[in-house]
Amino acid sequence: MADSSSNKRIAKNTAFLYTRMLVTFAVNLFTVRVIWQVLGVDNYGIYTLVGGIVLMFQFLNSAMISASQRFIAFELGRENVEQVKKVFSNILTVHLFLAAIVLVVGETLGLWFINTQLSIPPDRWVAANWVYQCSILSFIVTIISVPYNSSIVAHEHMKAYGYFGILDVILKLAIVFALIFIPWDKLIVYALLHLGVIVVMRVVYGIYCKRNFEECEYHYTHEKSVIGQIFAFAGWSLLGNLGFSIRSQGLNIVINLFFNVAVNAAKGIANQVSTAIYGLTSNFQMALNPQIIKRYASGEIKSMMELVFNGSKYSFFLLMLVNIPLYIACEEVLKLWLGDLAPYTVGFTRLILIMLLIDSLAGPLVTSMQAVGKIKTFQIVISIIMTSTIAIAWVWLLLDRNPYIVMYAAIITSVAGLIARLILLNGMIHFSYTEYFVRIIGRILLCVIPSYLILVVLYPLFPANFWGVCVFGIISVFINGVLVLLLGLQKSEKSKVWGLLKKFVP
What angle do CA 177, 182, 183 make, to 5 degrees? Predict the structure, then answer.
């Protein structure tokens, strides 16, 4: 496998994914603003809270996404077509089984929890139950879609993946316009229309995969050897993802138990910003991940680790371009975007931006461990660390009723999780800690510290209006880009960048 051709494929796929991300980001800015204004603070908080209960099951789905992408990409790396067919059908069988489990648990334990344990205004109980039922059905459809989406990623058909992502946000934009004019209960209508979009996208992905990938023709099968391998991998992944799910959605419940739905709404807006901004890294890593797995499958360990190291550093830099100026101008940006803000929205958003930068370093490390396949200890450790966020936040809140404590706890466990991943990966594939800290952490600090100091001094010079924020943002990205180029890259990396720039600059 030639590194140059695979690197070009990564770059090309990243370009498609970034086109998808930019369109998605622009549309989401508008849709979240309209939904915030149409639904209002309480309804938005209810949607975030109740939908989050369903997302507690996301640990099941996330585990199977990891397993699906890993096994399909691994067999493609070994060029074993017949085995890919077996893997796909067995994975889909497992997903159908998981969808049934979610339906049963959701309509029993989940329904009881929604109606007896949450702090929801009495006049919104009916609407909250509609949101919950739509969220359950949406999640079930999403579970069944995983093997198809994983095939697209494993085959590195990122152009199609990008187009489908754009179609998804266009449909979501359409339902926002419909929401403005439909006279019935806005919260219920939004939940129903959102479910409709997910069903449409499931059909689109299914049709594309059946037409382009021969393994995506489902035949019921449950081969014990294949399912055993999948469950062995997914079972431990499930444990780790359970920890993340508890951290993410459990903090929403903790907020609701200590405060009210208005604070949930503030956290929900911060989560929307997180989802949009993290696309800068997640799309790059999505293009990177199949190559990490395929290089390991073909025995190219040194090449794989080079990709892992560079992937961590570049992921951080891509986020840094936007996160630092957004952190500084956060209040003005959110007010321009949403108008009136719920209390704590700015603080939650800033803290999530910090957590995203830490988490961006972890993605390639996780993928490399998944490629090796020895994930039992890793998932146990990460699950314990992530789950401990709830205990830390709960005890801390008993001592100090400050809503930001939930994010302080999350940042602490993000740092602990990164350190744990480095130690565990070194036990699987030996590498130098010194090299990692010099090449990755050292270069990052050389860029982050001057970036923040320069931008925090410059920001007061710009007017606190739309054009002032836009100009500050453009200048900030330029300054960060220069800092990354001069201080963040090694000599060989700089040469490649200058070579690319010369092609575009006469």
Answer: 145
**Residue pLDDT, tens place only, 198-226:** 889 888 888 888 888 777 777 766 666 66
- Rounded Cα distance between 238 and 191, Å, is 27
Half-sphere exposure of 482 (CA within 13 A, CB side): 8
State which H helix or E strand residue 443 sits in. Answer: helix 443-458
Q: Return the number of other C-beta atoms located less than 10 Å from residue 176's C-beta.
A: 18
Tokens of 330: 């956060």
Among 251, 253, 259, CA closest to 50: 253
Tens-place pLDDT, residues 86-142: 777 787 887 888 888 888 887 887 778 777 766 677 777 787 888 888 888 888 888
Amino acid, single-letter form, for residue 492:
S
Residue 313 CA: distances (Å) to CA of 103, 359, 490, 499:
40, 12, 11, 20
3-state secondary structure of 43: helix
| Crossing angle of the two packed helices 301-328 and 330-338, in degrees rounded to 10 | 80
Q: What is the pLDDT of residue 392?
A: 92
Do 213 and 172 contact (CB within 8 A), yes or no? no
SS3 339: coil
How confident is residue 506, by pLDDT bands cut at 50, 70 and 90? very low
Q: What per-residue confidence (pLDDT) applies to 221?
A: 65
CA gap 267, 258 in Å, rounded: 14
The per-residue pLDDT for range 126-139, each reduced to its tens digit, is: 878 888 888 888 88
Cβ–Cβ under 8 Å, residues 387 and 59: no
Q: How far apart are CA 144 and CA 282, in angstroms?
A: 22
State the Cα–Cα distance between residues 389 and 396, nearest whole angstrom.
10
> Distance (Å, rounded) from C-alpha 119 to C-alpha 125?
10
Distance separating alpha carbons of residues 419 and 417, to the nearest angstrom: 5
Dihedrals phi, psi of 292, to nearest 5 degrees: -60, -45
Instruction: Give burial (CB, 10 Å; 0-12/13-18/19+) of 242.
Output: buried
Q: Using H for helix, E for strand and C for coil, what is the string for 343-374?
A: CCHHHHHHHHHHHHHHHHCCHHHHHHHHHHCC
Return left, alpha or beta for 330; rule: phi > 0 is left, psi -120 to 50 is alpha, else beta: alpha
For 429, left (φ over 0), alpha (ψ -120 to 50), or beta?
beta
pLDDT of residue 370: 76
Note whether 305 and 429 are within 8 A (CB): yes
Nearest to 119 by CA among 254, 7, 249: 254
Torsion-angle region of residue 339: left (phi > 0), alpha (psi -120 to 50) or beta? left
